[in-house]
Design goal:
Blueprint: H1 3-16, E1 49-51, E2 58-60, H2 61-73, H3 79-87
This protein binds zinc ion.
Zinc ion is lined by residues 33, 35-36, 38, 52, 54-55, 57.
Length: 88
């Protein structure tokens, strides 16, 4: 399955279930350290392990990449917007 086909399928599945789907550029999601933002390619010591050479943060590589993708699009409503909504 191509990346485009996978994205189209995900959007259809998400919208049919009332779930917003946002594309995320996957570039460097497997390199970035969530602890110190270091993005060196050498942080991947092997295919399965992510180890930040700057701060020592170590985790399974897939878990690190998934967390970076999630953090790329998670936004929280601002406090002002929430207050405005309550005020009407
Ligand atoms: Zn780090």
């Amino acid at each position: 399955m191509t990346g485009f086909a996978r994205t189209s399928l995900s959007r259809r599945q998400g919208s049919s279930r009332g779930i917003g789907v946002a594309p995320v550029n996957p570039a460097d999601t497997n390199r970035a350290c969530p602890e110190c933002s270091c993005g060196k390619k050498s942080n991947r010591s092997d295919q399965a392990t992510y180890r930040c050479l700057a701060c020592g943060y170590t985790v399974k590589a897939d878990r690190n990449a998934a967390g970076n993708v999630a953090r790329a699009k998670v936004t929280r409503p601002s406090t002002t917007a929430a207050v405005d909504k309550v005020k009407g």
